[in-house]
Specification:
With 351 residues, the protein is mainly α. Helix content is 40%, strand content 6%. The strands form two sheets. It has a four-stranded parallel beta sheet with strand order 2-1-3-4, sandwiched between helices. A two-stranded parallel ribbon has the order 5-6.
């Protein structure tokens, strides 16, 4: 069905709001095309953020088209825009309108249903959220505990990423850190579903987390995910919260500097590091992860072709992690090739 102004009339207020995005900064776009030049999509297929901006400003945005769902909110275009146009806000606003209109990819419907009932996007039961702690000495967070460790959804359920949560807990215990988890009281931070246009579900998840944080007396939150970090630090403040938020790479760097964590075993080999968009470009955290790696005896760090502020997006942000991308249109394939080209390799013993 074609999108006409008559059909979009109920959403006119929302469309007008998109045109005013960013305190008026949106209207300053002069179609220079810098956003298209740096967008990672144009490495795998034709895509134009400039066209989306133009349609949203002067015409009828194609909310039924695929393009508004391609943006991964990596922030590269916003970082390089000479006029300060907040392109991420434009994309998310259009997705909110599409969500009201019902023009949402089927995968997002599935994810939303799982988030609403089980508090995670993976259709896993909430009662199993803390199962990753089996065999570990991990306590439930109570008032007075120094740090809340918030592993997030994938480290709680995904068979591979559970290793991240387990390793984190072991390191914290070895360093004598007083920490606990919320377990079944923890739900998704909501960052990705917000970027996918479901503002109400984001608010529902945020309020549940915030209530549980406050009820438990949480003051400092340690996270594994860059997306959890960004949301807790920059978006939960919309709810008048004041939690101290720290990413695991920052915390490990602190522990090493303070002498609470000593890395003695040598690990010979060449490694590389991927700068996540929501840790690096969005929050400026570049040095601490590298600082931790450089404290491991024997390691050599080799940077990828695109790193730090110019890091190539993996494609998972903005709800991209739930999208079914065609072969040949996956940023992760390009990023993997860049990693291979560094010559990064560890002995078989450590894989």
């Amino acid at each position: 069905m074609a999108v006409t102004m008559e059909i979009l009339e109920p959403f006119k207020e929302g469309i007008d709001a998109v045109r005013d995005t960013g305190g008026g900064a949106f209207k300053y776009c002069y179609q220079c095309g810098m956003c298209d030049t740096v967008c990672p999509w144009n490495r795998v297929r034709q895509f134009s953020m400039r066209q989306i901006v133009r349609q949203a400003t002067f015409g009828i945005p194609e909310i039924e088209g695929e393009d508004i769902w391609r943006c991964t909110t990596c922030g590269y275009c916003a970082q390089r825009c000479p006029r300060g146009v907040e392109t991420i806000n434009v994309t998310v606003s259009l997705r909110c309108i599409a969500s009201e209109y019902g023009a949402v990819p089927g995968t997002i419907h599935t994810v939303s249903a799982s988030l609403g009932t089980e508090g995670n996007p993976m259709r896993e039961e909430r009662k199993n959220r803390a199962n990753w702690t089996a065999g570990l000495n991990v306590k439930e967070f109570t008032e007075g505990t120094e740090i809340l460790y918030f592993p997030g959804c994938y480290p709680s359920y995904d068979s591979r990423l559970k290793k991240v949560a387990i390793a984190t807990a072991k390191i914290l215990s070895a360093a004598g850190v007083d920490f606990g988890i919320l377990g079944t009281k923890e739900v998704c931070c909501g960052e990705s579903i917000r970027k996918a246009g479901d503002e109400e579900l984001f608010k529902q998840l945020a309020r549940e987390n915030i209530k549980n944080f406050i009820d438990a007396g949480v003051k400092k939150i340690l996270v594994s995910s860059p997306h959890c970090y960004h949301t807790f630090k920059n978006e939960y403040t919309e709810f008048k919260t004041n939690f101290e938020v720290i990413h695991i790479s920052q915390f490990l760097y602190e522990l090493i500097k303070e002498g609470r964590l000593n890395i003695k075993k040598e690990l010979p080999g060449k490694i590389t590091y991927h700068d996540p968009c929501y840790l690096g470009r969005h929050n400026g955290i570049y040095e601490e992860p590298r600082g931790v790696l450089m404290k491991v005896p024997g390691l050599e760090l080799a940077e990828m072709a695109d790193c730090r502020q110019e890091s190539l997006c993996c494609g998972g942000g903005g709800g991209g992690i739930w999208m079914d991308r065609k072969k040949g249109e996956r940023f992760a394939d390009l990023r993997t090739q860049q990693a291979i080209e560094t010559g990064a390799r560890l002995p078989l013993l450590y894989r």
